[in-house]
User: Fold this.
Amino acid sequence: MPELPEIASRACEMQAALVGKTIHSFEILQPKCLNIPAEDFSTCLAGATLEAASHHGKWIICETTQGYVLINLGMGGEILLRETGNPPKKYRLSIGFQDGTRLFINFWWFGYVHFVATGMLSTHAMTAKLGPDALEITEAEFTRRLRLKNTAVKTFLLDQKNLAGIGNAYIHDILFLARVHPLRKASGLDGEESHRLYTSIRNSLQSSFEKKGAFYEVDLQGKPGGFQEKDILIGYREGKPCPECGSAIQKLRTGSTTSFICPSCQLIS
DNA sequence: TTCTGTGTTCCCCA
DNA sequence: CTGGGGAACACAGA
Assistant:
């Protein structure tokens, strides 16, 4: 499940490794992940040179001389840079470069690779509707948005229109560090609580980003991220003691997602 | 075999 | 308008 730390890491690696490369060919094994017909996708981008790679929330944005390539890995996947003759076992799409290297993009489920013409980024609904990036948003803007919503804090944080980049893996520790129960009303948090939440988001995402993301995702060379299982405080640790107070960590259903909380540190009221 | 888990959109309902 | 809840997508691991 790639979230901001993994996506931002991939974008940095792509910026370092791909800028200046010219696109030579495509292999599109799953046309459904595109937003336009495969032939059009290839025609629009053939001969383009990569100029920059960045991210916004969970989206990777590649700027080329002939438009943008927007990548969303959905619920998990890899972006691998290899020689053309050395493909990974599974991939949905590959982009070949003139120097003989190739970018192989895979995802388990629900990933996207979209083309947007130069100057038309604002017409791409899926990225245009995103809120500020979770590591870019100011505390004032975060608090302002939080106060506007009457939904559960967890729902607020996962809704990419509010702020972009948090998913259902890092959120457990973010809420735990802020001592906020996932089902508290977003608009009901006091100043102290929203400040703790903002700080927790920054600390959690930044520390994983500095380690090149989570151990369950890999970099362009196939190497796992440095954010290890032991770095997770309470997420996915049902029944284990809370690192703060020793209470048994609980797993609970919150809407359609699962949450992990410390029942003593994160009270509902 | 059957269940669950991840992201995102979309659609219905109160 | 808001927010909750579900379906859809057609995979991988237990």
